[in-house]
């Protein structure tokens, strides 16, 4: 059974490998990821994952897509493109809890779409100016939702996590495995 990953994320490839899965193709989806007016973070993550999968759908193939959103209340934090973006996000998240919504969509060989959503709660310690400066200087924030990568240096700044560590990284493995199994994909 042919599996296409609709993502250019090296983290998603790494996470799939933890399930013993190597996609037959990696085809990043080119879609508009702009949040809609009034769209709540869980709905946004689910919509984007579904649109990514639909954009890459191919006959007689499984297509797996995901989207991960860091949310402070109803606010969707963007992927940090500049150090100023990362500083603003991390300053907002410092010392408080936030949610990470990671949506997964799998389109099966018959064209049916199945969806799962993982929501995790993450709390950072209150970041000192020195901790924030050191994290920003490391550059790990580039292109990361909310300006951080939990699998890197930021993990030492997390005082609390309830939910899926892999979901916060970008692909909730429990939900992904369930979707693959339901579609008949062979897993060990």
Straight-line N-to-C gap: 14 Å
Structural class from helices and strands? alpha/beta
The description of the largest β-sheet is: 7 strands, mixed
Count every helix, treating DSSP H or I runs of 4 or more residues as helices: 6
Low-confidence stretches: none
Number of strands: 7
Q: How many separate structural domains?
A: 1
Beta-strand content estimate: 25-35%
Order of helices and strands: EHEHEEHEEHEHH
Which overall shape is indicated by the principal axes computed on the Cα atoms?
A: elongated
Question: What features would you describe in this structure?
Answer:
The mean pLDDT is 95. The protein has helices at residues 10-18, 41-56, 83-93, 129-138, 165-169, 173-182, and strands at residues 2-5, 25-26, 61-72, 75-77, 97-107, 113-124, 158-162. Helix 1 (10-18) links the parallel strand 1 (2-5) and strand 2 (25-26). It is elongated. With 188 residues, the chain is of the alpha/beta class. The protein starts with a strand and ends in a 6-residue tail after the last helix.
What does the secondary structure layout of this molecule look like, with pairings?
Layout: E1 2-5, H1 10-18, E2 25-26, H2 41-56, E3 61-72, E4 75-77, H3 83-93, E5 97-107, E6 113-124, H4 129-138, E7 158-162, H5 165-169, H6 173-182
Parallel strand pairs: 1-2, 1-3
Antiparallel strand pairs: 3-4, 3-5, 5-6, 6-7
Brief overview, please?
The chain has 188 residues and is an alpha/beta fold. It contains 6 helices and 7 strands, in the order βαβαββαββαβαα. It is elongated, with a radius of gyration of 17 Å.
């Amino acid at each position: 059974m042919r599996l296409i990953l609709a993502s250019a994320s090296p983290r998603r490839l790494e996470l799939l490998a933890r399930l013993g899965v190597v996609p037959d193709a990696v085809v990043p989806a080119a879609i508009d990821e702009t949040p809609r007016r009034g769209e709540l973070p869980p709905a946004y993550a689910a919509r984007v994952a579904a649109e990514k999968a639909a954009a890459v759908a191919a006959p007689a193939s499984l297509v797996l897509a995901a989207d991960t959103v860091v949310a402070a209340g109803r606010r969707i934090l963007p992927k940090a493109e500049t150090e100023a973006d990362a500083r603003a996000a991390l300053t907002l998240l410092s010392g408080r809890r936030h949610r990470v919504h990671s949506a997964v969509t799998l389109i099966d060989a018959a064209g049916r779409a199945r969806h799962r959503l993982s929501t995790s709660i993450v709390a950072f310690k209150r970041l000192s100016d020195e901790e924030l400066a050191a994290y920003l200087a490391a550059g790990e924030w580039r292109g990361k939702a909310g300006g951080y990568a939990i699998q890197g240096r930021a993990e030492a700044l997390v005082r609390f996590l309830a939910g899926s560590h892999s979901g916060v990284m970008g692909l909730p493995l429990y939900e992904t495995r369930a979707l693959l199994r339901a579609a008949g994909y062979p897993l060990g």
